[in-house]
Design a protein that fits this description.
single chain, about 260 residues, alpha/beta, Rossmann fold, six-stranded mixed β-sheet, 9 helices, SGNH_hydro, SGNH/GDSL hydrolase family protein
C-alpha cells in the first residue's frame, strides 16, 4: 500500500466537469472534482488525484469500466455519481440498477477508501427533465440507504436548493456552469468537513424575458441542444464515445491561479 493520499473521481459528465468549459484542461473541461482536488492538495501536498469520469456513461458502464480501475489506484477517497443517464432513458429497472450500485459501493468501501455519494438533482424547474422527478426521488432513497449501509458520505444534491437558480447552469440547461461547479466543489468539501479557500460565486443578474422572448429562447435551445441530445440517444451513441479519462494517472495538477 502507498502512503500517498489519493482521490479518485468516478462518474459521467457531472464529475468530468462538462459545463465548466476550459481549453487548458483535458477534454476541455475543469469541473467541481478538479476544484476539490486542488483544495485537498493545498491543505496537504501528499494528495494525488485521478479523474476517470467520462460524459454520457450509464451506471453499468461506470461500474464495469471505472470501479476496477479506481481500486487499482489504491484510493484513499472516491467520489462517485452514477445513474443520471439511466434515469433519462425511456425504460429502467431502478431496483436492479441500484442493487448493482450497492455492490459497487461495497467494493470501494471494502478497499478502505472513504466514499462520497450524491443524490440526484430535483429537476422540477425543467419542463423536459422534470418528468423524471419521480424516478429521481426513488433513486435518491436508494442512495441514502446505500450510504447508510456502507458508511459513505452523502452530498444531497436534491436538497441544495440554490441550484434552482438557472445562473448555476450552462446554456445547454443540462449541465452546471462554471459557477455551478464552483458551488458544488464548496458543498462537497463541506460534506467532507475539509478546509478550503473557495469563494462562493456571485451570479450575474439575468433580465426577465417577455413571453415571446422566452418562447424564442426555448425554441433555440431545443434546436441547438435538446434535438442533438435526443438524436444521440436514438442512434445509441454518446458524446463521450471517443473520449478518454481526463486524469487516468494520479497526480496533483494545480493551477497558477490557485497557488498564487
Amino acid at each position: 500500500m502507498t502512503n500517498t493520499s489519493r482521490y479518485v473521481a468516478l462518474g459521467d459528465s457531472f464529475t468530468e466537469g462538462v459545463g465548466d468549459w476550459d481549453p487548458e484542461s483535458p477534454n476541455g473541461v475543469r469541473g467541481w472534482a478538479d476544484r476539490v482536488a486542488e483544495q485537498l492538495v493545498l491543505a496537504d501536498p501528499s494528495w494525488e488525484y485521478a479523474n476517470l469520469a467520462i460524459r454520457g456513461k450509464k451506471m453499468r458502464q461506470i461500474l464495469d469500466e471505472q470501479i476496477d480501475a479506481a481500486l487499482a489506484l489504491e484510493p484513499t477517497l472516491v467520489t462517485v455519481y452514477a445513474g443520471a443517464n439511466d434515469i433519462l432513458r425511456p425504460r429502467i429497472d431502478i431496483d436492479l440498477l441500484m442493487s448493482r450500485y450497492d455492490d459497487g459501493i461495497a467494493r470501494l468501501r471494502a478497499s478502505g477508501a472513504d466514499v462520497v455519494l450524491f443524490t440526484g438533482f430535483d429537476a422540477s424547474g425543467s419542463a423536459v427533465f422534470g418528468r423524471t422527478r419521480g424516478r429521481t426521488a426513488v433513486y435518491n432513497e436508494w442512495v441514502r440507504e446505500i450510504a447508510d449501509r456502507r458508511g459513505a458520505t452523502i452530498v444531497d444534491y436534491w436538497r441544495l436548493r440554490e441550484f434552482q437558480d438557472w445562473g448555476y447552469w450552462d446554456v445547454d440547461r443540462m449541465h452546471m456552469s462554471a459557477a455551478g461547479h464552483t458551488l458544488m466543489a464548496v458543498r462537497v468539501l463541506e460534506a467532507m468537513k475539509a478546509s478550503h479557500r473557495i469563494g462562493l460565486p456571485e451570479l450575474e443578474a439575468r433580465p426577465a424575458l417577455r413571453r415571446a422572448e422566452q418562447l424564442r429562447a426555448d425554441a433555440q435551445w431545443a434546436r441547438e441542444y435538446l434535438s442533438p441530445w435526443v438524436g444521440r440517444r436514438l442512434r445509441g451513441v454518446s458524446s463521450g464515445d471517443d473520449l478518454q479519462p481526463k486524469y487516468p494517472v494520479p497526480g496533483h495538477p494545480l493551477r497558477a491561479s490557485v497557488t498564487a
